[in-house]
Every structure is written in C-alpha cells, then in structure tokens.
C-alpha cells in the first residue's frame, strides 16, 4: 500500500480530542476513517472545490469501498498528519491512498485505500466527474505519491 516517491502529498493536520478516544485514551478505530474523510474533503477544498458547491451542480462523492490497516495507536492530544493522494482516476470514480501519521515521532499509525464514486445528488446514480475537477485530480494523480513520513 505504500508508494515511494520524494514528493510530499497533500496533508491535513488535526489533533486527537477526548471524544476520539476510548476509555484507555486510545483513538477508537473508526475515528481514523473520520480523519481520512476530513482529509479528502480538505484535499478537494485545496483544489478549489467544496462539497456544498458540487452538490449544487448535482454531484456528490460517496464511499464505495474502503480498506484500512491499523499499525500503531494514536492517543489523546497527539497531533496527526493525514494524507490524501489520488492514485487512480476513472470517469465516475477515484481511488485514494491515505495515511495517518503521528507528527511527534513521525510514526505511521494507519493507512487505507478508498474507492470514491461520483453520483448525482438527486438520484445517487453514477455520473461523470466534471472536466475541471478531473483536470485538478489528474494533476494530483501524476504529481505525488504517498510517502509522507520519510
């Protein structure tokens, strides 16, 4: 799952709050998916698009499938860096490779792959990704690989 390249991928920084943890102060596993969802949303915003804007154009992105590997625990107050790299771009879908790193010691905590489908906001039927958004993602797809911690 780890691609190798010298370029730094897009990353979203966040902190672990009490609400993200279980009774032992460790991040509950499903919250890594939330962190990665936020990073994908911020990646979109970084490209100049917002979820709200796209919804008015009858476009939503939905998770079709996901895969995650948990490698080490994050804990209360850890600062995290969450990457969001497009590794595959299709007519009506894209695949992200994502990683969650602890900033303090540059430890890879979790990594995942997500297939994201473009659908119509009114019917949830697949639809083509608009050309301007495809172009922005294409630049991301060809410009970076996920190697954020090294």
The CATH topology is what? Thiol Ester Dehydrase, Chain A
- For the record, what CATH class applies? Alpha Beta
Uncertain parts = 1-7, 144-150
- Oligomer description: single chain
Element order: H for helix, E for strand = EHHEEEEEH
Distance between the termini: 15 Å
Query: Which percent range describes the beta-strand content?
Result: 25-35%
The Rg value, from CA coordinates, equals 16 Å
The helix fraction, in percent, is 10-25%
Shape: elongated
Q: Number of DSSP strands?
A: 6
| Sheet having the most strands | 6 strands, antiparallel
Estimate the mean pLDDT confidence: 89
The CATH architecture designation is: Roll
- What is the CATH superfamily? Hotdog Thioesterase
Assign the structural class, choosing from mainly alpha, mainly beta, alpha/beta, alpha+beta, or little secondary structure.
Answer: alpha+beta
Features:
150 residues, 6 strands, elongated, disordered N terminus
Question: How would you portray this structure in words?
Answer:
The protein has 3 helices and 6 strands. The protein is of the alpha+beta class and 150 residues long. Strands 1, 2, 3, 4, 5 and 6 form a 6-stranded antiparallel sheet that branches. Residues 1-7 and 144-150 have low confidence and may be disordered. Helices cover 24% and strands 33% of the residues.
Summarize the topology:
Blueprint: E1 11-15, H1 30-46, H2 51-56, E2 60-70, E3 79-83, E4 85-89, E5 93-102, E6 107-119, H3 131-143
Antiparallel strand pairs: 1-3, 2-6, 3-5, 4-5, 5-6
